[in-house]
Design goal:
- By secondary structure, this protein is of the alpha+beta class.
- It is built from 6 helices and 7 strands, in the order αβααββββααβαβ.
- The structure holds flavin mononucleotide (FMN).
- The site of flavin mononucleotide (FMN) has 9 residues, from strand 6.
């Protein structure tokens, strides 16, 4: 093939890829936001019983979570629990740099804690993109804890900053563990995440860092 033919075929390929990307993004936009019911902040097991039951599990049934349970789960994880906007988990200097992305069979969403809405990010089933192990694809959902380094105060190159970001995500993950223990749900937090694949699937910006993922679902029957 001549150099000219090669370069024109590269142009055609670039156009095709751009059209595919545009179609993908238009499709994501056609996913509707999911408004969740107000979280129920009462009930559940006593704290000591939930601590007694807390454990990692890696076998899930594919049954979806009822929307009330999903709302309660997200509120327990990282919901607003005070009038000044502070949350159920602490964050260094109250920077609140973590966003929770949720991969459901029908699409990937980012949770707006204030509005209690799941805003569409990408259409399609991205559960498998959250893990290097097979089970994330089989559970009701995966949570992905993503740090927005523009909010964190110091850059990702600062080791203390990255320790803080890891700790902040860890608190959220433990809230999810305790909620799941209380509700009889199965969960496991995961660092084994194909970060490049997932960042692309979730259309993350360069200033966003994937910290951890956490699979949640009903236990396998
Ligand atoms: C930071 C962190 C990363 C983890 N990453 C993974 C993971 O990628 N895959 C996995 O199956 N479990 C992962 N786990 C779960 C641990 O393997 C689990 O907590 C440990 O074996 C103790 O079991 P337990 O949680 O039931 O007490 C992770 C846990 C933590 C705290």
């Amino acid at each position: 093939m001549t150099r000219r033919a090669l370069s024109s075929s590269s142009v055609v390929l670039a156009i095709v890829l751009a059209l595919v990307a545009a179609a993908g993004s238009a499709f994501a936009q056609s996913l509707a936001p999911i408004s969740l019911p107000a979280p129920m902040m009462d009930g559940g097991k006593p704290l000591m019983s939930a601590l007694k039951a807390r454990a990692s599990a890696r076998e899930f049934s594919g049954d979806p979570l009822p929307s009330q349970t999903l709302s309660n789960l997200l509120w327990a994880a990282w919901g607003i629990n005070r009038p000044d906007g502070r949350r159920t988990a602490p964050s260094a200097s109250n920077k609140q740099e973590i966003d929770i992305y949720v991969t459901l069979p029908g699409g990937a969403y980012v949770w707006d804690a204030k509005a209690n809405v799941l805003n569409p990010v990408a259409a399609g089933d991205h559960r498998a993109d959250t893990g290097t192990q097979p089970f994330p694809a089989t559970a009701a959902l995966n949570l992905v804890y993503v740090a927005d380094m523009t909010k964190a105060g110091r850059p990702a190159t600062d080791p203390q900053q990255m320790l803080n970001v890891g700790a902040n995500a860890g608190f959220i993950a433990e809230n999810v563990y305790l909620f799941c223990a209380s509700e009889g749900l199965a969960t496991v937090v995961r660092a084994s995440v194909p970060k490049d694949v997932l960042a692309k699937a979730l259309q993350l910006r360069d200033t966003q860092v994937i910290v951890l993922a956490q699979t949640v679902g009903f236990p396998k029957k």
